[in-house]
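Review form for a predicted model. The reviewer records the input and the model, then writes brief findings.
Reviewer: anonymous (R2)
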Amino acid sequence: MCYAGLRNLLQGLTFSAKYYSKHNPPQTVCPFSKIAPKKCHILGCSKSACTHRTVPPGSILPCRFFSCKEGTKVPSKRKQDTSIITSDLLHKNLLKAEQKNWNNISPTYKTMTKRIKEKLEELHNLYTLISRSPRIRFGENVYFEENGCIFLGKADDGEGNAKILFSVEDLGFSDAFIQRIRISPDQRYMAISLKSENSEEATCIILKLGNLPVVEKVIPSVFSFEWAANDVLYYTAQKNLKCQNVFMTTFTYQKHTKLVYTEQDARFFVDLYCTKDRRFLTINSNSKTTSEVWLVDTRHPFESPALVQARTTGLIYHIEHRKDQLYILTTYGEPAEYKAILTDNYIHRINLDAYCRSYRNSKLMKAPVASSGKENWQLVYALERKTKLVDFEMFSDDCIMFLKNAGHLYLNVISFVSHSVQLIKLPTWACEFELESHPEHTTSTCYFQLSSPVHPPKRFAYSFKENNLIEQAVQEVPIITNCHTTRLLAKSKDETLVPITVFHNKNSKELHRRPLLVHVYGAYGIDLNMSFKEEKLMLIEEGWILAYCHVRGGGEQGLSWHRDGCQHNKLKGLHDLRACIRLLHQVGFSQPKHTVLAAASAGGVLAGALCNTDPALLRAMVLQAPFVDVLNTMMKTHLPLTIEEQEEWGNPLEDEKCMKYIKSYCPYQNIKPQCYPSVFITAYENDERVPLTGILQYVQKLRKAALDHASRTSKKGNWIPNIILDVQANGSHCDSSWEHSLNEVWSLYCAAPFPCN
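Model under review:
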């Protein structure tokens, strides 16, 4: 669990400081870098360890051998006691039994697998051809990645004239992809992180650019990194899913590396960010509820970092810089009703009435660099309660905010010149956005992409000079004309209205007879992943209805939405999910016998809980690396994430009420003999975030309960659910590979073999 830079911080400002929790999304989900296309895998979070042969520093590329053996983990040689040996033996026996069961079952789905694979390959090839990776602009130069190759071109020249600088294969990483790219201010050096799908850690490679790029340094187990100067790189080291040390390394005359910062509190995770104007590099130490930021002046990168504001419980903040002023995105200040949301004589161009009835949550404030304490913070702009700030970008004369309210996306442009704010509603079909990298803060245009689960990314540009939004027609994209988007509000047990986003084929008749796939997450203040996926489009074409339930515990409606669904409020998320599914059925979207519930990681808590309390609402449940044994996991403080997770689930070791509360909803603890839906679970043998042992024990207990119920109720036609576990030797907790897309659809049809169009 960890922070992933600016966007994660921004999400934290509206619902909680976002960790690399048991989810990772890849969307989504790991968006530190602003250059994260789905196809070329330039993402923003780095979490992979590699074991390849090494390119020695000073080697000229291309060369075909690479390694970072120093990043390989060495098994502990501590003497194990009898209880550990017994536990390991039980784990091995359960795993062996499940693997045998899987090997017996999987051949029966061979024909179905072939059909799904052919269809997905067709869609994958189609949208790969039209996809375009974001560009990184430095003056006249443009850098981009395609198919594992880094290209350099000119901004005003055709991409056909771009030259290849190097490829992943040149580095010996044929099975890895590029996660992050950072280019030094003078463009002499490039730092990249490489990750394989099977690991949680990344390797950072620094290259000296030129006609023949030279490998300067290889750093294993790196999470984030930023250039503080032309030849000075700061980076964070990752160990056991934690980042607590910041190092500085140099590449010119006196090459050296030294420790700059160490975080002592196990609840906090450290990452790095550079302000838009590159004046400061920020060291961000964050827990789920609290932030602390240190500034490194890039004009004096060897001086000690300066503290902005000491950590204060409940205070989350992120720093930008413009013209000797720090701009602070923060939750500072008690929520209070207000009549004006703008200060400094700003003119508001949108309807104020809705805002005057709401409450402040996240705010944009400012303070002088020399007096950065919170007592000097002045309000610039405040957001409406239940409005989520998805991302934020500072430019020389403007700042741009991407907002989400009631499922709709908005663009909020604040002009520091005209002292005005313009709110632009983005297309109604849009559910996700991707802000492209803009290294130059003086640019006059902001580029971004919009998408939805069934709409491939479309590129847009906002012109600060023209004050208008332009759709970029870079390449012809197939228009999704037969998919309808519906937004609903379900009334939960306490009368709270819970948003639902629904997609279905316009040509589908008798929707109450169509299969329904319901998605849920509801944890860590993280939104459901609603970016484009070919498998979702395939399901729509085959007549499925897709529903996304934005329950409490997630971040879709801001900070309070997360707080209302964590710790002692976790059951509210369960009530929300139940209300959503019932409403979907009531308005004619499918029925229980055609309904499948899908969840990943911590989303497995609510999905598994509903499976125990309301099994009659579902035909099947499909889970990926699910967190289903909350109580036992949170009792084990030796696990790498337990201490950090206490802010989400509570501390059952020290709080008896917390223990009883977790036990009341924990999926594993509440299994009982009853008629369960079918269940298909995909797990990963080396998952560091969700222990496989808990999943193995959950499946065993669930299968026994289902069989016990069947044996007690020997009615004619009594249905015994399929309970299937696929334990994959490869892949990681946050797998977003092509194989995962195939498995997702395949497992869906295995669990609930509905007829398709």
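Findings: The longest helix spans residues 82-105.
Further findings: Residues 1-80, 335-360 have pLDDT under 50 and may be disordered.
Recommendation: see findings above.
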